[in-house]
Amino acid sequence: MSQRVDFLFLNEQDMIDAGVMNTTQCINKMEEVFKLLSDKDYRMGGKLGNSHGMVVNFPDVPEHENMPKNGPDRRFCAMPAYLGGKYRVAGCKWYGSNIENKEKGLPRSILMMTLNDADTGAPLAYMSANLLSAWRTGAIPGVGVRYLAKKDAKVVSTIGAGAIGTSSLFAILDELKTVEVVKIYDVYQKSSEVLKEKIESEFKHVDVQIVNSEQELVEGSDVISIATAGNVSPEIKSEWIKKSALFVTSGSATFDPDFAVKNIQFVVDNWQMYEEVKYEDEYPYNNKEMGVVGRLLLDWIHEEKMTTEHIKEIGDIINKKVNARENEDDIVVFALGGQPVYDVAWAYTVYQNALENNIGTKLNLWDVAYQVR
Amino acid sequence: MSQRVDFLFLNEQDMIDAGVMNTTQCINKMEEVFKLLSDKDYRMGGKLGNSHGMVVNFPDVPEHENMPKNGPDRRFCAMPAYLGGKYRVAGCKWYGSNIENKEKGLPRSILMMTLNDADTGAPLAYMSANLLSAWRTGAIPGVGVRYLAKKDAKVVSTIGAGAIGTSSLFAILDELKTVEVVKIYDVYQKSSEVLKEKIESEFKHVDVQIVNSEQELVEGSDVISIATAGNVSPEIKSEWIKKSALFVTSGSATFDPDFAVKNIQFVVDNWQMYEEVKYEDEYPYNNKEMGVVGRLLLDWIHEEKMTTEHIKEIGDIINKKVNARENEDDIVVFALGGQPVYDVAWAYTVYQNALENNIGTKLNLWDVAYQVR
């Protein structure tokens, strides 16, 4: 056992070289994470041990001249977790997010991941986490499609063509070999065009269409990925939705609660994570600082429009404890909130790839720590 | 504005070279932080925006064979904050802690600090935070002594001779030029001896004594630093305490509540941080996972043994809004819990020193981020 601590720095190119964009591997790893979640072989923060992470945000009207002002997706967030199974490793993702970054040619969020020895706490790796985060977030819809989509799905659509929309669509297409048509809608036409080009070069057999409204997008779609950012929250009209359709929602969206209770099966990543929100935030939980469908469900439960009986967990479906659909025609909404255990799993996998292939920069923390000598 | 993101890596030796152990400067910076706290020019996480951080801990009896088991100081913790004033910077300290590290020749906690641009979220620096953390934690008692100790203090003592005990004692001696005697008590005799040697080589005019009991240590002392670790919680008997004495407690300790309500003035770093604990933990708040005097006060309030009227904040004393002592003989207990704003302030200062003196390793995150191209 050495007193010396070294760790690996992986910048964005290193992460690419180490396979961070390997969609199939990432979907398989995320499926493993859901099994570990179902087995409770993980630890996260928060009162219930299931917190998404700790957010630092800013006021709408700061009292101090120089204090940053609240805005769409304006926050810092620390997401710590331990993951068991064959991972047995801890880590923390830490990011700052600001929609104004786009004007500077920077991504909306800049994310870094630290991976740590579960026993000593020593850093194993410090990694650029933009692609890590986008890929793991995209891979979850891939797992969703594997277990929740109708097997003959032909039309797949995305609302939102940013980083998450892109990686989600790649994962869905990786998983669903039957797709013939992809529809894209984004408030930024340019983003739609960039995504169209990426899909066309990767999946030559699909017909990619940029559409001009949410209605046009949802109608006739078998799988709809909702990857909105900022405070964009599309209202999905019930009459647009095809029977047996699957929504995978990484971003915000609203549905008609009366329709939903009768016709939609809600599947979440981890319901305890949303229960945790009650200790972290005030009603309405689905708000402009943090809008996701899981929080919308919390609000509906608070408003007595539905109960937790309408909510299933993906891990229980994977482990065949429950069925996704009660009836063939049921619509399924797979509502995602993001959890640090995903980052730990994918970071550890990419880190192992990097070690095997000699990728990255080895950094020395100390030979012997000053306060042990 | 460049799309390229670089940041500085500072390992432990770099941190030393950049002045992380400059006690006087650190005390001055911590005094500034308390003024910013009093002005509310900061942001932290949690429901009240005043959280110490997010802890990931382990069960006493894990259900899974490979899951780490709870133990003294066994946790991971993410501590995010934004700090205003002339700092205007965000950051997150992330550490893992395990008392068994000592057997491996590693520090009990291994800490890393990320410093971020407040607007873009881009990392500015990734730093070894063991000395950063020890020095900022030690400097707070220095601020406490500056405002709360009797001016002619002759006898200063420490319960606990570890990293925090050491840096606290250095800060107290840096601040109090009248000290003639230093008393040390630690359950590990070896730690006491190491600290004795350090003090003797730095402060040649003081008589350093290793004592064999808490009673011997407290009796006759003008200032007592309590820097215990793990689940060590000394019970301080009322009859041992000298009139007008000051306790600075970074660790756990218990006092007799009946005596305390009549004779002790409690001064805390940030009372809202302890109020936040009610959303994060269950009563009893002062427990073996996290024992500090601020949590003991929460318990006393919960048990209706005292009220918040008995509690003052150091920032209000610095800003002369209230007096530390009502009566000359009053004992003062300065109860500390640790806040990420301290880390941000001291990290930013050391980072600036490093930039000016060309210390550290420049790392490139990306030239242009993959998902902006």
Notes on the protein architecture:
2 copies of one chain form a homodimer. Chain A has 373 residues and is an alpha/beta fold. Chain A has 2 domains: 5-133 and 341-366, ornithine cyclodeaminase, domain 1; 138-339, 3-Layer(aba) Sandwich (Rossmann fold), CATH 3.40.50.720. Helix content of chain A is 33%, strand content 23%. Chain A contains 11 helices and 16 strands. The first copy, chain A, has helices spanning 12-17, 23-38, 130-148, 163-175, 189-202, 214-218, 257-263, 271-280, 293-302, 314-318, 340-356; strands at residues 5-10, 42-44, 54-57, 75-83, 89-97, 109-117, 123-128, 155-159, 181-185, 207-210, 223-226, 246-249, 264-268, 311-313, 331-335, 361-366. In chain A, strands 1, 2, 3, 4, 5, 6, 7 and 16 form an 8-stranded mixed sheet that branches. In chain A, strands 10-9-8-11-12-15-13-14 form an 8-stranded parallel sheet. The longest helix of chain A is centred in the middle third of the chain and has 19 residues, at 130-148.
